[in-house]
Specification:
The complex is a heterodimer. Chain A has twelve helices and 20 strands. Chain A is of the alpha/beta class. Chain B is mainly α. Chain B has seven helices and four strands. In chain B, the strands form two sheets. A two-stranded antiparallel sheet of chain B has the order 1-2. In chain B, 58% of the residues lie in helices and 9% in strands. Classes of the chains: A alpha/beta, B mainly alpha. Chains A and B meet through helix 9, helix 10, helix 11 and strand 18 of A and helix 4, helix 6 and strand 4 of B.
Amino acid sequence: MFTDARTLADQTSLEADLAIIGGGVAGITLARTLAGSGISVCVVEAGGLEPDPEVQSFYEGENTGIDYSPSATRLRLFGGSSNHWGGYCRPLDAIDFEQRDWVPFSGWPFSIDELIPYYEPAAEIVEVAPGRFDDREYWQRVTGEKLPGLATGRMRLQFVQFSPPTRFGSRYGDELKAAANTRILLNANVTRISASDDARGVKRLAIRTLNGLRHNVKARYYVLAAGGLENARILLLSNNVIQAGLGNQNDLVGRFFMEHPHMGGFAEMVVADLNRLPKILRERLMAEGRSAKAAFNPTQAFLREHRLLNATFMMGVAGKYPADQLPDAANANDTARRDMLMAARRFLTDNDDAVKPGRPDEFGVWLGIGGSCEQAPNPDSRVSLSTQHDALDLAKIKLNWRLTEQDRLSFYTHLDSLPLEFGALGIGRLREMVADQSDWPQPLGGGSHHMGTTRMSDDPLRGVVDHNCKVHAVDNLYVAGSSVFPTSGASNPTLTLVALTLRLADHLKGRIR
Amino acid sequence: MTAGPRSLYSLCGIRRCTRRTFLLSALLSLTAYGFGSNRYSLANSGPEPCVEPPWLWKTIADRQSAARIGRTYLDAHPEIRQCHTLITDIERTLKRQDTSVSLTANADQTASALQRLLRKEYERGEVVSVAGWVLSKTEARLYGLVAMIR
C-alpha cells in the first residue's frame, strides 16, 4: 500500500514490526524480501513517486572538501538514486574484505565467502543474472573473440555487467503496493530517530511533511536505509539522548566518507589493428540478453606485493583515423597519435605494409581511458552537520571529501601498468597525459558512491554497526546500504549493497519472528 | 633510405667524388665499423656518419614519424645521441634477450626478434617516457636511431 503522508491526519501514529527509513535500493530490496513473510513493514520515504525540485533541494548541503555536489549525486524520491543509476555491476574482490596492513582501518568483519551466497540473488534483483563477472571463457564463447592473456602479472581482466538499469521504484513498486504486509509512506521526512532514555533502543521515528504535518512511526525494529550521506545526517540529528547523535558515542558517525575517485583524460591509447583489441574490451556488448564490458583490474598479487589500493580501468574508442585523411597539423594531439600509429605500425599489426590499414577504412584509432580507484578509509573525510538549515529547520550536511597521498600514488602505479600490458601484447601504445603526478588528474570527480559513513566493525571503537549491520549499543536499529562498507574496493557498490541487504533480511527474519 | 654505395657516395659528395676518394671513404668506413660488418650502409646525420643496420627498415614502418618521436627521445637523452652507441645498445640488448639471433644472417629474423624483445621489455617494465608515450627502451632507441639516420 502507498500512503502519502501529507494526506494523513496530523499526528498520525503508524505501527509495524519493521520500519525502514528510505525507499531506495536497499529499502525496497529489504521490503520486497520481507513481503509475504508475516512481518509488517513500513517504508518511510522522504520523496514521492516523481522527482520534485522542492523535495530534492533537501539534499543540498555545504561542501568544504573536493568539489562535489551533495544534491546532484543522489535522488530524493521513491526508488532513490537508482533513478539515475548507470547500472554498473561487479562484486567486490576477495582482497577488499581483508585487513591489509598497508590500508589503515581496512578489514570487514567477514570475508567475501559470507556474501557469495547473496551475490547471485542480488544479480537477479538488478537484472544481470547470472553473474559472469570473472567468467572469461563464457565471454570468449559468446562474443566469438579470443581474449588476450595479460602478461605482466599486474592486471587482470574482469567483466562489468550492466543492469538495464533497474529503476527500483518503477520496477518493484507495484509488487510492494500489492504486498499485504507492506506500507510505503511517501513524502515523509524522518526528522529524528527517537531513542529510549538509556539510548539502548529506538522508540519511534519522528516524521514531518512539507505541508506542516507531524506523524510518527513505531516499530519493533528499524533499518536506516537513506543513503550514505543521509544515514549519517539522520543519526547525527537524532540527538535527543546522546548529544553527539545516535550511535555516535565514539565519534564515528559520518567519518570515513569514501567515494570512488573517477578520472578521465589522464591517458589515451592508439591501436593500429582493432583485431588485436577484442570488442568487449572497448565497448559494451550484448550477448544472450546480457550487456557487459571488460575492465582492467590489478591482480591481488600485485596489490599485495606493492601494497596498493584497488582500481578499475575501462576504455572506449574516442576517434578514428581514416586512411585517406591527412593529419591536422595544427592539432598536436592528432599529430602525436598519427606519428605513433605510423612509427610503431609494424609492432602493432600483422601487416608488414606501412600504410596499408588494419581495416579497409582506417589506419588506426585512439581510445580514451577512464579509471576509478579505491580510497583508503580516512577519518578526516567526513559528513557532519552544517550550520545551515533546510526548510524543516534541520541542519544540512557538511561534506568534506578528502583523499590522501596514498590514494593518489596507488592510482598512478596502476596507471603505469596499463602501457606495459598493452605493449606486452602488441595491442597499442599508451600516452600518459598527466605531466605532474604530484596532483590528481583533472577533472577529478566521484561516481555518486557514498560509502563508509556508518562503517561496519565488531569493535565499537572502529565501527558504527556490527557484522549484522546493527548499530552498536542500540538493540533494534540497523543500517543498510553502502554507508556500512568499511572499505570500498573499486567496484560500483550497488550489487554489493543489495547482497548485504539480502543478508540483513535473513538476519531480521530470524530475529523478528 | 637506400642501402649500399649510394650512401657511401654521400660521404664525399656525389658530384665531386673521385674514384680515389670514394675508395678511401669506403675503406675508412669498413675499418671504422669492422671488416666483418659490411652489412651496414652509411648515411649522413650531421657531424657523425650514421650506420643503417639492415634490420632497421624491416622494423620501422614510417621514417618521418619515427624520427619525430626519436628526436624527442634524444633531446631528453643527449648522452646516447650517437649512432654507434644506439646500435650497439640495441644489438647487445637483443643478443642478451635472444642468444640465438644472428644479427647478420637475416634482417627479417632480426626484425622479428626485435619485436619479441620489445614485448618482453613492456612485460618487464623496461620502459621510458617520450612526450608522455610509454615506450620500451629499445623501441625508443630505435626511433632515436631513425632520427639520427635521417
